[in-house]
Amino acid sequence: MSCAERADDFALRRTRLGQLSDEQLRARFWTLVDDIVAPLIEEARLHTTPSIERSILLRMGFSSIEAKGLVARMHERGLLGYGAGRLVLNLAKSKGISVRAAGAALLAGRYWEDLVR
């Protein structure tokens, strides 16, 4: 397998950018980075998976078994789109309890009706 050699057109392509100052080049670079990354950020904001939600709960201090149980129950109730970690955190704040206590209460079957209001 061989690749066609690309013509060296650097000098031609550089003419558009040669007139820009370092600060203008930096601004252009970050504008292009924002344009490239924006769809990825939007995709991550709008879509999640049980695996991602379990991972978030693990980082919040829940065990693997607890995270799996919480995510499974949230998934059954159609709540994963709200974010498992966010739901547990908001519940903890609204009840004045720790995040661990909020997760334990959910696993025990309490407060499910309070999650999304």
Helix content, binned percent: 55-70%
What spatial form do the alpha-carbon principal axes imply? elongated
* Radius of gyration, in angstroms, nearest whole number: 24 Å
- The string of secondary-structure elements, in order, is HHHHHH
* β-strand number: 0
Distance between the termini: 59 Å
Q: SS-based structural class?
A: mainly alpha
Q: Approximately what portion of the residues adopt beta-strand conformation? A: under 5%
Low-confidence stretches: none
Biggest sheet statistics: none
- Mean pLDDT over the residues: 91
Total helices: the number is 6
Question: Brief overview, please?
Answer:
The protein has helices spanning 10-18, 22-46, 50-59, 64-76, 84-95, 99-107.
Question: Could you walk me through the main structural features you see in this protein, from its secondary elements to its overall organization?
Answer:
- The chain is an all-alpha fold.
- The chain contains 6 helices and no strands.
Write the layout of secondary structure elements.
Layout: H1 10-18, H2 22-46, H3 50-59, H4 64-76, H5 84-95, H6 99-107
